[in-house]
Specification:
The chain is an alpha/beta fold. It has a domain of 177 residues: 3-Layer(aba) Sandwich (Rossmann fold). It is built from ten helices and twelve strands. Strands 8-9-10-5-11-12 form a six-stranded mixed beta sheet, with helices on both faces. A four-stranded antiparallel beta sheet has the order 4-3-6-7, with helices on one face. Helix 4 runs parallel beside helix 6, helix 5 packs across helix 6 and helix 7 packs parallel to helix 8. It is globular and about 60 Å long. It starts with a helix and ends in a 10-residue tail after the last helix.
Length: 301
């Protein structure tokens, strides 16, 4: 019997022909290709000499618990843009974040942030890179024993030699930006969910980072507060600029703030491009996911 690769070189179509993305196995049966809907002809990684790309992931592979979480991921994030990374739950979005920050390293491939290959950095270099990245975690990740002011001041006290007077001014400015100037003395337990998100956002901005990452910022928020948070993200980006990466599966958020959209599924980018291109895509998976339709390749499996 011929090996699979020999059969694929000399395919024999079953009656009725092959449907989109199906392939012939060594037994003559039709098998769904794990990456049948994923683009192969798009420039997903950018030009390595083009400064328009802030972050580039090059054939990144990461295996966890016997599962290929990132499976040859290629994607680039444009500078000075709000990029939305969309995808079903459990498809590798949070693992991607950890690779960008340097909390995880790829088994193969490279993550390049601001021209630096993350896995090649020394610990001092990695810490310096992390200081250029702000992160808003799902629930704000505030210290419960610290008031809002001290939570936002924490990175400055840990990583800079700023005076307390300068720290106080910076913290007040960022809390004013997010509408929490009157809540500086409150503990996290006294805040609503939306207020905790905004306090976390202020802390993410306080080091004046080049890159800000939002991990499911709409998690736990009702639609109105989600829309208001998206407005705030856009407003802060207009003021502070930089590379903003919003990781979510909320289509309404993507429509509201996404300037560039990358759709992640099964450890790879299905398609990426500006918002107009993505919402007009003819890819069956992209169309289904962005429309929220039950009809299409994505199932409950």
């Amino acid at each position: 019997m011929m090996a699979d690769e020999d059969v694929r070189d000399q395919p024999t179509e079953p009656e009725g022909g092959l449907t989109f993305g199906e392939r012939i196995t060594g037994h003559g049966a039709v098998e769904e290709d794990r990456h049948q809907y994923h683009a192969t002809d798009l420039n997903l990684i950018g030009d390595e000499n083009d400064e328009a790309w802030s972050i580039r992931c090059l054939d990144v592979r990461k295996r966890l618990g016997g599962v290929n979480v990132l499976d040859g991921l290629n994607v680039a994030f444009p500078e000075d843009t709000i990029t939305v990374v969309l995808g079903p739950s459990g498809t590798g979005k949070s693992v991607l974040i950890k690779h960008i920050i340097g909390l995880m390293f790829p088994d193969a491939g490279d993550v390049v942030v601001k021209g630096q290959v993350v896995k090649q950095l020394t610990m001092p270099e990695l810490l310096a890179l992390r200081r250029k990245i702000g992160v808003l975690f799902q629930d704000g990740a505030l210290f419960g024993s610290m008031n809002v002011f001290d939570n936002v001041a924490f990175p400055l006290r840990q990583h800079t030699d700023m005076t307390e007077a300068d720290i106080a001014k910076r913290v007040r400015d960022r809390l004013t930006d997010v509408g929490l100037a009157d809540a500086m003395g409150d503990l996290p337990s006294q805040l609503s969910g939306g207020m905790r998100k905004r306090a976390g956002f202020a802390r993410a901005l306080v080091m004046e980072p080049d890159i800000v990452i939002f991990d499911e910022p709409d998690s736990g928020l009702d639609p109105v507060r989600t829309a208001l948070l998206c407005d705030l993200i856009q407003e802060m980006h207009q003021i502070h600029r930089g590379t903003y990466i919003v990781v979510t599966h909320n289509i309404a958020s993507a429509r509201q703030i996404g300037e560039y959209i990358a759709l992640l599924w099964r450890g790879r980018i299905v398609e990426a491009g500006d918002a107009a291109h993505m919402f007009a895509s003819e890819n069956p998976f992209v169309r289904q996911f962005l429309s929220g339709s039950a009809e299409g390749p994505l199932t409950m499996d």
